[in-house]
Amino acid sequence: MKIQKYCRLGIMSFILVILLIIPVRLAIAYHQSPQPQAILTLGAWIDREEMAAQIASLYPSLKVWVSSGTPPQLVRPIFQAAGVSDSRLYLDYRAVDTVTNFTTLISDFKQHGIQHLFLITSDFHMPRAKAIATLILGSQGIAFTPISVSSDQFKQETIVPIIRDIARSLLWIFTSHTGASFESVID
């Protein structure tokens, strides 16, 4: 009985320590890189990619990642029209949902030494994206500055997908698995 109690206490303490490290890692990242070094757009909506192209034209040194967005033959002209060269554009189609938008790109961001990025998504989607980014990016010492794209067509997401994706983000932090199969169970 005492062993189970100490095991539970130990596990809870471990989880708490890990979760408390995230704000520290975010603070360090913001301090070391107060300005974004790249742009991450959660794709699938042309207006998000148009906003990313607009921001990229204002910051000509930033590389741009579009995660599981519009097909290349449609998205490349958007960036070309904004004067963003293909050499700055990374189109990545590995993600199958919002959690994997982040987890599939972590190694790319680390490889490029990115500690701070602009995060672009629709306003109705931003609360969930920020929750996931805080956990996944924060656990890796990558800060983010959110930019919401106005979307009058949709109302803000409910709390259910946010809670589900927080749980999936924690699962990824502890196991490197995203639980992508949970996506269809609760949607």
Automatic annotation (TrEMBL):
Domain DUF218: 37-149
Protein origin, superkingdom: Bacteria
InterPro entries in the record: Cell_Envelope_Assoc, DUF218
Coiled-coil residues: none
Name by which UniProt lists this protein: YdcF family protein
